[in-house]
Design goal:
single chain, globular
């Protein structure tokens, strides 16, 4: 497994814990890393994803709400909600090709979510991708 996939899976686990308990992000990360070994690249990308989602959560959640018809964010499965948040963050930055971001999100959702998670994630992220392309012309927000 590549370091970015592992980072995404770790970031999902941290975001899942943060979503369920009102704990400081740095305390959760410290506890998380005390229980596993990871190389520096994995740690850096994991923490970048976690902090990015936390720092830009209002914008990320707004994008998800606008595109997830008939699904309130608060009613989504915790795994699905946080996979979407991570992927939207990556789509907004435009550093990774949108197709890769979406494929990775689907795979992580399939591993940690329920049987419908992959197709749900795919549908929402594809609509967000289209909107971002319309806003910025290159897949990044304007």
């Amino acid at each position: 497994m590549g370091h970015r996939r592992r980072s995404r899976e770790y970031a999902l686990q941290v975001l899942f814990q943060l979503d369920l308990a009102a704990s400081p992000v740095d305390a959760v990360l410290q506890s998380f890393w005390s229980e596993r070994e990871a190389d520096e690249n994995v740690r850096l990308f994991t923490e970048r994803l976690v902090h990015g989602v936390i720092d830009d959560r209002e914008t990320i959640d707004r994008r998800i709400r606008e595109t997830s018809e008939h699904w309130r964010l608060e009613r989504m499965a915790v795994v699905d909600r946080n996979v979407l948040r991570m992927a939207v963050l990556e789509l907004q930055t435009g550093e990774t090709p949108a197709a890769v971001v979406i494929d990775e999100a689907i795979e992580v959702a399939k591993r940690f979510g329920n049987e419908g998670s992959g197709s749900f994630i795919n549908g929402v992220l594809d609509r967000i991708r289209v909107r971002l392309e319309q806003e910025g012309g290159d897949g990044s927000p304007s």
